[in-house]
Amino acid sequence: MSRSDVLVDADWVQENLDDPNVAVVEVDEDTSAYDKNHIRNAIRIDWTKDLQDPVRRDFIDQEGFEKLLSAKGIANDTLVVLYGGNNNWFASYAYWYFKLYGHENVKLLDGGRKKWELDSRDLVAEVPQRPATEYKAKPQNTAIRAFREDVVNAIGNQNLVDVRSPDEFSGKLLAPAHLPQEQSQRPGHVPSARNIPWSKNANDDGTFKSDEELKALYADEQVDLAKDTIAYCRIGERSALTWFVLHELLGVENVKNYDGSWTEYGSLVGVPIELGANK
Amino acid sequence: MCGAKAGGPDASTIKPGETTIQGSVTRDGEPVTGYVRLLDSTGEFTAEVPTSATGQFRFYAAEGTWTLRALVPGGSADRTVVAQQGGLAEVAIAV
Fold first, then answer.
1. I want to staple A207 with a disulfide (CB 3.0 to 4.6 A). Which of A111, A163, A191, B19 is the partner?
2. Where is the Rhodanese domain (chain A) (predicted)?
3. Which whole-number Å values give the CA distances from A252 to A39, A56, A198, in the listed order?
4. What is the per-residue pLDDT for A226?
5. A6-65 pLDDT, tens per residue?
6. Domain co-membership, A94 together with A149
7. ipTM greater than 0.85, yes or no?
8. Which residues contact A179 (CB under 8 A, 6 or more apart)?
């Protein structure tokens, strides 16, 4: 797999905005950002409403994903190009989610909304309409999704990559510094996890670093990519970006994203927790 | 709720005793929209917010020395700030 199989740049998006077989989709951490403006012809998926079960803490099921994509006008053979704010955190999450339900024809806009804005490219308020489809999803591919038992069993056995900021990892903060302090019952990290913040994967403008830089990053942190790997953060969106880097850009097999992440693990009764900085 | 609102968390969500860093970004004296990154004392990325329409931003942080990096179309600028526990640090960034 090469970068061009999973990433497109802003010029490519600009040239393909009117192709009906391409669906540009904004998935933004700030779900209201789309209302203000967005890339022309882009539709929105709201990660808080569209991608979560309305009652349980879980994803929408296979049928729900079919309904969502059908209503959004995405067909099984549509090339979906995802982008979003905050360095593509939630666009990466949506990418992983599309893969979870077997949509293979999906790519990320490198740099996301930030790079597009910093390039001073056009954004519009007009909301496009795509004709409805009859989308068929596959059952979840749990080879890329980790659950809490997987994480507990991975302690000391597999790579655990905690992609939160150093202060969240050490237990100083419970949440990123731009968000209200809330969520898990206890601070800290999963024992044996390496702290490799998601941000080390990206340049200031939100584009991904080169394959060589990324390989060096994980090698320098003594992550043996021949072993199975679980990435986690607070709610699984930043770790989806790291999953994208390892699984999609570097082609590492057996990488899972733990979407329960610290808000689940840090609230579990009886599991081991470690405090302190990366060793 | 996890959305990073432009300008950072809403002022109504500030809790008493929270260590807060906030300010605004300007170019030639006028507010400019873009992004502000919060880097820790070792230069490591900690957080990022888009600025509000009037160039404002806000972070919750821990006490210590931080660097704010403003990114706007065609430019960037860094400012160092020392945050006190439970205090409010105001920073004006001219790009």
1. A111
2. 18-125, 154-274
3. 32, 32, 17
4. 94
5. 999 999 999 999 999 999 999 998 888 999 999 999 999 999 999 999 999 999 999 999
6. no
7. no
8. B2, B4, B9, B47, B60
Residues of chain B neighbouring A118 (CB-CB closer than 8 A):
34-35, 71-73
- Residue B9 to residue A179, Cβ atoms within 8 A: yes
B59 touches chain A (CB under 8 A): yes
pLDDT digits (tens, 9 = 90+) for A193-205: 999 999 999 999 9
Domain that holds residue A151: 143-265
Rounded Cα distance, A275 and A188, in Å:
5
If one counts the domains in chain B, the total is 1
Mean pLDDT of chain B: 86
Q: How far apart are CA A230 and CA B95, in angstroms?
A: 40
- Specify if B39 maps to a domain: yes
Domain assignment present for residue B10? The answer is no
User: Domain range for residue B79?
Assistant: 19-94
Which chain A positions have a beta carbon within 8 Å of B7's beta carbon?
none
- Asked, for residue A270, whether it belongs to a domain, the answer is no
